[in-house]
Amino acid sequence: MNRFYTVLIVPEKTSQVRRFVIPSWLFKSTAIGAALIGLVGVVMVLDYWYVMGEVRENRQLQMENRRLRQQVQVFKNKMETIESTMDRVKTFATRLKVITNIEDKNSLLQTLNQEKLPDASTNIGTAVALTPSAPVNPAAPALSSSQPASPMAAGGVLVAANTLTSSEDPEEILLRRDFDLLDTRFTEINTESLYIEQMLQDQYELLADQKSFLAALPTRKPAVGYFTSGFGVRRSPFGGKNKMHEGLDIANRAGTPIRAPADGTVVFADTKSGYGQTVVLDHGYGLETLYGHTRKLLVKKGQKVRRGDIIALLGSTGRSTGPHVHYEVHVHGTPVDPLSYLLEN
Is 193 helix (H, G, I), strand (E, B) or coil? Predict the structure, then answer.
């Protein structure tokens, strides 16, 4: 077994040879040390590249989180605008409900109004306010104002946030809480919009029915002229006895147009005993109007007419003392005073 190793150094230009004697233990120790230093160097280089990769990934995650916080702020602003609009619409719908005296159908509105969604703190711990102080990355793309702020959009961004990293990064936790809060607010607005939609639908149906009812009211004077006889007991021009006069007499020259005072359907257009040529209109809701002593009929049975349509010409047919139209209003078959419906002088 060698106890020493000899190292010879031979210069190129001189003949002097240098000789070194190294103990074997020192040579082996030096070789092992060099190998260990090389191994440590390789490990350090690999670790450096790994750390640099982690740093780059961490920077990308930070940039992504900043971009997501910017989107959260944009969503928050849009949510505030939508909530403000919904409040105004709800106030307007409530006023309409009071004005129209609408009643809830099957207690649906009351049920929807009493429903309360879980508070955000029950889902995500302590509620975190969405503050605009989050740093914004200049290189991150800004969210367009035309991009829809929908639950699906928020959910899509939430998926991206959840897949960023599996580590419990504080900023990622804040992002998750913010998106959970946005999702809850979207659900609340969706429920509120359904409530308002149902309310407005009920009001629309009621107002449509009221519009039809108003169109059926005989509020227009059927012919231009002078009132010569009113509704009530009067002395009959034929015989001089007191007799109930069940309508109004409007006198004018023969041929004056007689117009429908409301929308309706012609149910009679022929000669009627005592009334001469007569038109009867059915306006619905139990309302009927009669026009007697006309000179000429301009409508036929079954024809639909609108308020203001000419239905006949004023005349003096039947038992009449001169050109006029005898105008009656019946409510469920009972004659009533037409003046109670007229809105014209």
Answer: helix
